[in-house]
């Protein structure tokens, strides 16, 4: 008899998410009966996607995955009150559905963030005796403090206490890096309760990518280091502009290509224009089907984050996509992400928010011969397939789900 699994997640396709339809579909292929409980898609713009209208309940089936959409207050702007309303409204509707409508599953998988999903899952565990596996993708309240989303210490303290309550109530916690695991152990969570399962990337989108790069993409006379993704405060890409300025004097052929969108883009463009730099190119956000072509045409791929203790225990999601595409990495992040690249032998490490270190790493990559860079690229792809891939990650999750379906609460 198939194990009935509920995926409780506020974010789901067509919204961008790490554990969306690809994850659910793979679990169905492994014999699980999967129901996704989620909201109406509105992230990241805060407006309900075309083709959807908020109802009390909307059901659909995609590739054998039953998707149940529940009402929420759509908002993702800078207002703390509206953002909290978004989180709390989904928590309330999913709790009501879980208590009074949901047929009892064998296991609940709960995706964090937001924290309110963990509250719902913990209450369902207590009231309906359903085992809960809690997947932590962001460490709260640390992320809230580091990104400036929440700065009130009393509020942060309350969030911390709620986190500790959830950690005690759920049956198993899955985290994306060894650093997350160590931090939870420091905060009193039993080590045997925590598993590290690395994230994967959208492999099908990368494999089915267009082969054509935008016209703005530099030619083969340049050594092209590509950054693809959100350009916000956490990415601290002003350092890249400083590095590009230094390179104009030392190695003008080394260029950075910044692909994506975010609140810092206009400011970065103004910095580049003020300095008169021609070794930084901006390419607007493109569909995943086109990102693969840009990554594939790069000579190296850049990961950069602020020099913050939180990011030292984080493995940015673009790391997996970069490795899957099979390119040398320039990793300007401390801690777990740097150690992953060193273990894989697939790139060069630089200090975050340090333009001189970034320049040294970029030049080191540019000065390597084709054989050296090809070896790094092969290492990158090999490590992804054996340690980080969708197949590896889903099998590890499936093993946990089977254990709790068999043993119960």
Average pLDDT works out at 92
Structural class: alpha/beta
**What's the β-strand tally?**
14
CATH class of the largest domain: Alpha Beta
Shape: globular
Number of helices: 15
Main sheet specs: 8 strands, mixed
Report on this structure.
- Helix content is 44%, strand content 17%.
- The protein is an alpha/beta fold.
- Helix 11 (318-325) crosses helix 14.
- The two termini are 19 Å apart.
Descriptors:
alpha/beta, Rossmann fold, six-stranded parallel β-sheet
How would you summarize the topology of this molecule?
Elements: E1 4-8, H1 21-29, E2 33-39, E3 58-62, E4 65-70, H2 80-100, E5 107-112, H3 115-128, E6 132-136, H4 142-147, H5 153-169, E7 172-175, H6 178-186, E8 194-196, H7 203-207, E9 223-228, H8 238-250, E10 254-259, H9 265-275, E11 280-283, H10 288-297, E12 300-304, H11 318-325, E13 329-332, H12 336-344, E14 347-349, H13 355-367, H14 370-388, H15 390-407
Parallel strand pairs: 1-2, 1-5, 2-4, 5-6, 6-7, 7-8, 9-10, 9-12, 10-11, 12-13, 13-14
Antiparallel strand pairs: 3-4
Helix pairs in contact: 2-3, 3-5, 8-13, 11-14, 14-15
What's this model, at a glance?
This protein is an alpha/beta fold and 409 residues long. Helices cover 44% and strands 17% of the residues.
């Amino acid at each position: 008899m198939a194990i009935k699994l509920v995926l409780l997640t506020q974010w789901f396709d067509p919204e961008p998410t790490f554990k969306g339809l690809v994850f659910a579909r793979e679990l169905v292929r492994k014999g699980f009966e999967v129901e996704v409980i989620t909201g109406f898609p509105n992230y990241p713009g805060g407006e309900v996607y075309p083709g959807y209208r908020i109802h009390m309940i909307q059901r659909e089936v995609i590739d054998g995955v039953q998707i149940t959409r529940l009402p929420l207050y759509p908002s993702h702007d800078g207002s703390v009150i509206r953002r909290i309303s978004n989180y709390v409204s989904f928590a309330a509707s999913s709790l009501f559905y879980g208590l009074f409508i949901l047929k009892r599953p064998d296991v609940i998988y709960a995706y964090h963030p937001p924290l309110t999903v963990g509250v719902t899952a913990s209450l369902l565990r207590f009231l309906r005796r359903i085992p809960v596996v809690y997947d932590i993708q962001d460490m709260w309240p640390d992320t809230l403090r580091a990104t400036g989303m929440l700065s009130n210490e009393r509020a942060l303290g309350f969030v911390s206490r709620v986190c500790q309550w959830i950690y005690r109530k759920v049956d198993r916690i899955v985290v994306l890096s060894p650093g997350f695991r160590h931090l939870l152990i420091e905060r009193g969570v039993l080590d045997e309760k925590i598993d590290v399962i690395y994230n994967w990337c959208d492999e099908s989108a990368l494999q089915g990518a267009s082969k054509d790069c935008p016209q703005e993409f530099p030619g083969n006379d340049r050594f092209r280091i590509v950054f693809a993704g959100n350009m916000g405060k956490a990415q601290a890409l002003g350092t890249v502009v400083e590095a590009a300025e230094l390179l104009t004097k030392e190695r003008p052929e080394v260029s950075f290509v910044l692909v994506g969108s975010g609140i810092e883009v206009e400011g970065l463009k103004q910095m580049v224009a003020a300095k008169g730099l021609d070794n930084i190119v901006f390419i607007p956000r493109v569909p995943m089907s086109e990102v693969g072509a840009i990554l594939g045409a790069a000579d190296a791929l850049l990961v950069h984050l602020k020099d913050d203790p939180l990011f030292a225990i984080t493995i940015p999601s673009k790391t997996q996509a970069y490795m899957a595409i099979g390119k040398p990495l320039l990793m300007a992040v401390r801690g777990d992400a740097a150690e992953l690249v060193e273990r894989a032998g697939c790139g060069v490490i630089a200090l975050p928010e340090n333009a001189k270190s970034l320049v040294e790493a970029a030049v080191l990559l540019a000065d390597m011969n084709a054989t050296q860079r090809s070896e790094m690229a092969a290492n990158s792809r090999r490590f992804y397939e054996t340690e980080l891939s969708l197949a590896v990650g889903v099998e590890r999750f499936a093993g946990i789900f089977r254990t709790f379906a068999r043993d119960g609460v």
